[in-house]
Every structure is written in structure tokens, then in C-alpha cells.
């Protein structure tokens, strides 16, 4: 048990170290002027997609349920936090404090929607669960596009018709402008804030997975009937994983909203395409592999931009990389090759010295 704990801790520290090392390298490249403005602008989106991939892996990889509405929770976190920041922009002038409160608001709102959606939806399985979560994501996106909210001296005004229906005074301000979204959100998101949120997400998910609750969640994934037979509350643990995943997606949404000057709900950023792209990160990085989710999110986000100079072959190379990653992670021959070339690690664990040490330990125990 102690050896397993040490192995788990070591693996987690390696993952944290990779993120911190990437941050330091980017800071050095930025300070020396060796990074383009295009790549510098991609640093916060890389953090956003890493958070989304890790949080979705909690549901898909460890709970074993297929969710296609992850972009919907991101949308909830983005718009609630942007609305909050826009309302308190003149009251709370300290940017870090305002952004921290926006993170709490966005995560809480996404978690509430996770609970509301999770209670009825998690009774479904397989394709039915995927269809309902997909419908949730599309409903949220379309609902945001038909909402107008304004504020004047008389308070807040709400409409689902048009901006003229708000009937505001001359001193009024439109905060949510239907399909045009929210304009003028404070751009408080930074690369440092993104890295810290990635580390928080990794810490939450890794500690949950290796806890008693995490083992219960994985037991449900492996065999629901067997898990129920030993007294595991299936509904409780499924809802726990789903809600935590939704809250973390809400954090990514907050980071996304505060990285843009104008926030709109379109198919590309909060629709079906976004949910599928996050699922691609999870699948290609390895289902149940947290570190792989981060690597896949970074590689597949950077690759199209790095290949932009090869305009004629950019998407072809991107598709080839996707196929190669999938074959490397899932093909039986690839798995066999990895096991063969990593056999020296197993031999080291099963070496005579390790066996003799184990025998000595058993003698002392006797």
C-alpha cells in the first residue's frame, strides 16, 4: 500500500512539474522576445482546454459515462461570471479580487446546473445520456441568445423579446444584449491565473480519483451491480463526479469570458462542436489518463496554429496527427510494443534484490 501511495504521489508531482515547467519556459521565451504574439495569445486558451479536458475525463474516464454537454456548463460559468464582473466593475476596482469572486460565481452556477441536470439525467445510460447532455448544451446556448438584461436607476430589467422591450431610463445600460452577448467584460484572465487554475483542477481531480470516493466512482464504472451489492450509493457518487466536473468546466468558462472583450454564444465556442472537441482531447489523450488529457489539449490546440504557414496541407497534417495519436493509444500492436519496450521497468521491480528485500521484510514481520 505504501509503495502504491508513493507511486501515485510521484506521478502527480510529475504532472504538476510539467505544468510549472511549461509556465517557466513560456515566461523565459516571452521575456527574451522569442515567442510570437500569436502563440502568446494562445497561452490562456491552452489553459482553458486543459481544464475542460481534465474535468470531462472525470466523467468519461473514471465514471464511465459519455457526456456531450460539457460546453454547456462552460457557457453557464462564462456568462454568469461575465454578468457578475460587468455589474461590479465600478464597485470592486481591485482586479484580482473581482476575478476571484467571478471564479466562485461561475463555478457555483455551473455546479448548480450540474446538480439540476445530473439528478434526472444520470438515471440514463450510454447513448441516451449522451443525447440528453447534448440537448442541454444546445438549449443553454440558444437560451442565452434570446435574453436581454439591462440596468438603470430603477434596477434590473429583463426581456426575451428585444432590447427595446427593456423600457429603461436614459441612464440605463444593456448588460446582456441577446445574440450580441456581453461586451466590455474586464479582461482579468492572465496566463498565470490560467496555470494556477490548471494546477487546482489537477489537484482536485487527482486527489478525488485516488480517494475512497474515487475508488467508489471507478467501482461504479467497472460494475454497477457489484458496486450496489457492497453498499455503494450509486446515485450519490455519480452525481458527485458529474457536479465536480461541471464546476471545473465553469471555471474554464470564467477564464474564457475574462479573456475576451466580447462574449457571444455561438456554435463554435459553446455548441456541439466545442463539446466534441473536448471529447477528442480526452479520447486521444487516453480515457482515464489525466496527464494525457493535458498533453492532448495542448498539442491539438497548438498544432493548427503552428501549421498555419502550410495553408494547403495544414488540416491534412492535423488529421494525420489525430490518427497517429489514436493508433498509438488504442491499437493492440501499439500497446504490445509499449509493454515490450517498457519491460525493463517491470524487470527492475521484480529483480532478485527487490525479491530478497521483500523476503527479509516478511521475515521481520513474522
TrEMBL record:
Its main location: membrane. The keyword Transport does not apply. Keywords: Cell membrane, Membrane, Transmembrane, Transmembrane helix. The chain crosses the membrane at residues 12-30, 42-60, 67-85, 97-121, 128-150, 189-209, 278-303, 315-332. GO terms for cellular component: plasma membrane. InterPro entries: ABC_transp_permease, LivM-like. GO terms for molecular function: branched-chain amino acid transmembrane transporter activity. Residues 347-366 are annotated as: Disordered. It is a multi-pass membrane protein. It is found in: Cell membrane. This is Branched-chain amino acid ABC transporter permease. It comes from Candidatus Pullilachnospira stercoravium.
